[in-house]
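Our consortium's second objective concerns turning raw sequence data into structural hypotheses that experimental partners can test. To show how far this objective has progressed, the report includes one record in full. It was chosen at random from the queue rather than selected for favorable results. The single chain below, 429 residues long, was entered without modification.
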Amino acid sequence: MFEKYQKKFVNLQIFLDLPKMKLSLPQDYSKLVKIQNRRIRSLMKAAYKVPFYKERFDKAGVKPGDIKCAEDLAKLPLLTKEELRAWMKEEAKNPKYEDWFHDTTSGSSGEPLMLLMSPREKAYLMANWFRVLLAAGYNPFLGKTMSRKSAHSVTGGKDTIFQKVGILRRDFLDQYAPEEEMIRQVNEYKPDFLYMNKTELMRMCMYASKNNVKVWQPKFFCPTGEKIDDAARAVFFEVLGPNMIDSYGTAEAGACMVKLPGWNDHKVWHDSFVVNIYDDDGNLADEGKIVVTPLFKKDLPLINYIVGDKVASEVRDGERFITGVQGRMNDAFKYETGEVTTFFEIAPIIAHCEDVIQIRFIQEDYHHVTVQAVHNAKESTKSIEEVEAELRKQLTAKFKHPFELTFEWKENLPPDDNGKLRMIVCKVK
């Protein structure tokens, strides 16, 4: 009933939500756990009133009171993207969601996912993003932000009252423009904070590096949507400076953990999220698939959501740190035998190959794979022929059955339509 009015004042709600959040990452983990546990119990009570989750609770033989901490969430089933997509499509038929946000994901893992979100949850999601910036030392309310053009902008691209008086100022960078035009837009606007999909930002930075073109260095920048490898990090630092925010999250759940400039690992926002890790057997583990539960989503909860990435972690003084993110790669190499080789199996080869800046594998059929790559000519001491020979040898050793590899060396690899770069494109049905 009130959603129509809440939607109009969603930016105002951000100011009300931020005080509810920890604006820094405190050293006292025990206090955070108490906050997290309290919010877990509250979320469970709310979720049990939602038919979709009541059914899941009942099938698992679990009551809300049985779940009191992060580890207890393992008593409930994991939520797949396919289950979420089907549930959201069904819920969207209900007229009561007319004034909710109907956001969609980029579709980097296949079909885009429509997500219903109430205005108050949308505001919290946005406030949580601003919290990331505040933790890094950037004031998103007074600084100038520049991001890629988005079909899901809350204001539709028009300045609100806040922007007109100098608060929450932002502009949009045309990610589809030629590189020199992108650079012109950045240099003209001089943003304090710049963020966009990693592949799009990489395209601009690679052009600037190769052609010795100066790009305005913002106070902070954040490549989003894809894993940042060492070769990409080096190019970003060269062109945009050292102040990179590595924020991890999804459109569905929000920014659940962050690695700030100078940090080695990601830290989780425990007051707003539960981040659990499961191995292939469905048990809690230190390494495996990452599963996220945003604690602020009570209208249509998102419990035990499988993001699609694999991570490694360590526990220090009781707190879990994410030490490595392998990234989400939706396709795999397929064989006539029914076997597959996933991206995670060849990820170490790519991660430690500083001679290549970008790479993509296109499996044409069961016997042929085209490797598209960009040579790191500025840093590499090896020729393209040498790099190709090494990659061919290392990849062949990892594949379960031999492929005929064809290498195509490019100036840059353009992103897919969603702005990201799929690392494996398998055309085998």
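The partners drew two points from this record. The longest strand covers residues 305-316. The domain at 3-325 is CATH 3.40.50.12780 (Rossmann fold). Both points have been shared with the crystallography group to help prioritize constructs.
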